[in-house]
C-alpha cells in the first residue's frame, strides 16, 4: 500500500492515479470522499458552521467510491457527483466539513475498510501516512511551490491564477491547522518536490523507490 499525501496542486492526484495504473493496483482518492460528503451537506441545507448538524447529515449519507484508476466514480445516495464535487461551491466548503471530527472518523473508517479489501492500492489525501494507514509500505509527501500549484490548478479549472493561489492558501491553512488529523508530513515519508518535475518523472521516481523497498 502506498500513501501519497500533500497539499492541493502538488500533483498528488495525477501522480497517484498513474502510479496505480503502472503497478496494476487500485486507487483511492480520499479528497473525493470529503468533497462528496460536502456536496451532501450542501444539498441538505444545514448550516456549515454547525458541526453537529454537519456530522448528522454525513452519518446518514451512503457514499460509494470507485477504486479502478482508469474509471473513477463517486456517488452519494446513488447520485453520481463526479462533476459537482469539483465545482466552486464544494471547493469553497470542503475544508470546513473535513475539519469536523465525527466526519473524519466516519470517512477514515470507510477508507480503512476499502484499503483492507483492496490488496495493492495507492491512496492519496492529507492524513494517509499519518492517520489512515501508518503502516503503509511507502509514504510519499508530494509538494511544490505555491506558484506552481496555483498555476496547475488554474489550468485545470480555467480560473484566474491569483484567485486560485489565494484559494489554495486558504484551504492549506485550514487543512494544516485543524485540530483533528491536520495535513502534516509523516516522519518516515519520502518528500518529493514536483515544482520542476514532470508527471512521468515523479511516477518513475516513486516506482524506483518502491523497487528498492520490496
Ligand atoms: O485532494 P482534494 O483537494 O480534492 O481534497 C479536498 C479537501 O478535502 C482538502 O482541502 C481537505 O480539506 C480535505 N481532505 C482531508 N483529508 C484527506 C483528503 C482531503 O481533509 N485525506
From TrEMBL:
It catalyses: dCMP + ATP = dCDP + ADP; CMP + ATP = CDP + ADP. It is found in: Cytoplasm. The lineage of its organism: Bacteria, Bacillati, Actinomycetota, Actinomycetes, Micromonosporales. ATP binds at residues 6-14. Belongs to the cytidylate kinase family. Type 1 subfamily. This is Cytidylate kinase. It is an enzyme of class 2 (transferase). One of its GO terms (biological process) is pyrimidine nucleotide metabolic process. InterPro entries: Cytidylate_kin, Cytidylate_kinase_dom, P-loop_NTPase. Pfam families: Cytidylate_kin (PF02224). Its main location: cytoplasm. It comes from Catenuloplanes indicus. Its EC number is 2.7.4.25. Keywords: ATP-binding, Cytoplasm, Kinase, Nucleotide-binding, Transferase. GO terms for molecular function: ATP binding; dCMP kinase activity. GO terms for cellular component: cytosol. The keyword Secreted does not apply.
Amino acid at each position: 500500500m502506498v500513501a501519497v499525501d500533500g497539499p492541493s496542486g502538488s500533483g498528488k492526484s495525477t501522480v497517484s492515479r498513474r502510479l496505480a495504473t503502472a503497478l496494476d493496483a487500485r486507487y483511492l482518492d480520499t479528497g473525493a470522499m470529503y468533497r462528496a460528503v460536502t456536496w451532501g451537506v450542501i444539498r441538505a441545507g444545514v448550516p456549515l458552521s454547525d458541526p453537529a448538524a454537519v456530522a448528522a447529515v454525513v452519518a446518514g449519507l451512503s457514499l460509494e467510491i470507485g477504486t479502478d484508476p482508469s474509471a473513477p466514480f463517486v456517488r452519494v445516495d446513488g447520485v453520481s457527483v463526479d462533476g459537482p464535487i469539483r465545482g466552486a461551491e464544494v471547493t469553497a466548503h470542503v475544508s470546513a466539513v473535513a475539519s469536523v471530527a465525527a466526519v473524519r472518523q466516519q470517512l477514515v473508517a470507510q477508507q480503512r475498510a476499502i484499503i483492507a479489501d483492496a490488496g495493492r492500492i495507492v491512496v492519496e489525501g492529507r492524513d494517509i501516512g499519518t492517520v489512515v494507514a501508518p503502516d503503509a509500505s511507502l509514504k510519499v509527501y508530494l509538494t511544490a511551490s505555491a506558484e506552481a500549484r496555483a498555476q496547475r490548478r488554474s489550468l485545470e479549472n480555467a480560473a484566474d491564477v491569483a484567485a486560485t493561489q489565494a484559494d489554495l492558501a486558504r484551504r492549506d491553512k485550514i487543512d494544516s491547522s485543524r485540530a483533528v488529523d491536520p495535513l502534516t508530513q509523516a516522519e518516515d515519508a519520502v518528500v518529493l518536490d514536483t515544482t520542476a518535475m514532470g508527471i512521468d518523472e515523479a511516477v518513475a521516481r516513486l516506482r524506483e523507490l518502491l523497487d528498492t523497498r520490496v
